[in-house]
Amino acid sequence: MSELIFARKDGDRVALPAGTVAGLSSRLRGAFVTAADSDYEPLRKVWNSLIDRRPACIVQAAGIGDVQAVVSFAAERDLLLAVRGGGHSAAGYGVPEQGIMLDLSRMRSVRVDEKQRCAWVEGGATWRDLDAATEPFGLAAVGGMVGSTGVAGVTLGGGFGWLTRLHGLACDNLVSAELVTANGERLNASEEENPELLWGLKGGGGNFGIVTRLQLRLHSVPPRLFAGMLAYPTEEAEAALALLRDVMAEAPDSLSAVGAFSSMAEGQPVVLICSAYFGAAARGEELLAPLRKAKAPLFDSMAPISYGQLQSLFDLGGQRRQRCYWRSSFLESVPNAAIATIVAQERARPSPQSAIVLEFLRGAYERTAPGAAAFQHRGALCNLLVTAQWEAAEDDFANRDWALKTVAALAPHATGGVYLNYQGSEDADRETLVPQVYSPETYARLVALKQRYDPTNLFRMNLNISPG
Ligand code: FAD
């Protein structure tokens, strides 16, 4: 082991002697990886290939003891620290330039308590890990439509999924959490212990500590759902989206739907309507009949499938690394004028891999009491997600510009709020984003929690709540 140069939180660099670095690595059960190791390159890569940062070291934690060792080591020396769960943050929060990357991907165990209807999930588990563990019991947790995204990363920011209209967000179903705070201590947050911290974890992101274990409420899912995709040519986009909006206005909570402009594998632009009915196929067919009969889809894969199959519907797109820039906005309504704007922006997209997505909300999501979680925006009809995704560096400007212009064009229909997990933010954006994510009252409560649990802002690679 040789001397290593680390970035400090304030941006300065510090050289730590070989003995100091060895002191950390010898305390770990997991792996300590530097640029000299062959697995450094694959480990530093995350889903957004625009993020090309080189951490001073990567610790692959094997358990809470390793997490405590890393947090204490970084805190004592004011080093830059980032935590990587599933590695899907579009903003690249999981990788620090020249800092310590705490990789939780070896901490993925899941234990299901069938009687209590909950799952105990380690901090680095993905939705695929969790779904595989709950499916044999006929149970499921809310959230994460793509198997490779991290349970903790998704849940701490909110967590939209197929079950949101029935059971709220992933964070609404967070019963308790175990975390390591900035002083290296292990803490529990639940309704009984540190309830204010539990509230803050439901939407406050990774600001208060490294979550090593989550307890999530589980729900019964039928063995077969009526779910799949309908694809229409883009000439039919306006009519198809208007029909979807009208179907969802009358739909029971058990019908969930997402409308998306996307491309088929061979590049043909299409509008996709992906939906899931958590009930008998015949009733699902009836509810979706206006969509399936009024317009002839290019393809129609609606069929009785298992929840596991539904959860893998988008997996292919979720695994492929690409240059990406995401923007989002909650919409209060989707009148025909908004649909026309979406269609016009879709036609202007510079990359066929980019998409405009509308996630339909309401149901249990809307009924959750506004103060129950740090996450807000319960009144929105839809979550609009603009995913600019492309291949070549020379197209960076055009694609970012398109994402920004798309969200701006839909501003007349927006609530003014945004979902923090769908932001491809850069530091310069923070001042604009924070008031769009949190109301002043919620932000003040989060600052008080930050001052209590992370007064020196060790956990800053996130949509940062400044301790002031
Ligand atoms: P990472 O990059 O590993 O982590 C991001 C940040 O989350 C970390 O830097 C840290 O600040 C925090 N974090 C992660 N784990 C921990 C932990 N154990 N303790 C403390 N902080 C932690 N969102 C939805 O709501 N629903 C979806 O269906 C959905 N689908 C998506 C599909 C794709 C392909 C992508 C790219 C994103 C999707 N998202 C979705 C957005 C997703 O919620 C965020 O990208 C989220 O940050 C991913 O978490 P991660 O652990 O995979 O990311």
Question: What ligand species are in this complex?
Answer: flavin-adenine dinucleotide
Q: Which runs of at least 5 residues are low in confidence (pLDDT < 50)?
A: none
The helix/strand class is alpha+beta
- Overall strand count: 21
Describe the sheet with the most strands: 8 strands, antiparallel
Keywords for this entry:
single chain; 468 residues; alpha+beta; 8-stranded antiparallel β-sheet; 5-stranded antiparallel β-sheet; 24% strand; globular; binds flavin-adenine dinucleotide
Write a brief caption for the model.
This protein has helices spanning 18-25, 40-44, 64-77, 127-134, 151-157, 164-167, 195-201, 237-250, 281-294, 307-311, 315-319, 336-347, 364-367, 396-409, 430-437, 440-453, and strands at 4-7, 13-16, 31-33, 57-60, 81-84, 100-103, 110-113, 118-122, 139-140, 174-180, 186-189, 210-217, 219-220, 225-233, 255-263, 269-277, 299-300, 303-305, 323-331, 355-360, 382-390. It has 468 residues and is of the alpha+beta class. Strands 14, 15, 16, 17, 18, 19, 20 and 21 form an eight-stranded antiparallel sheet that branches. Strands 7-8-12-10-11 form a five-stranded antiparallel sheet.
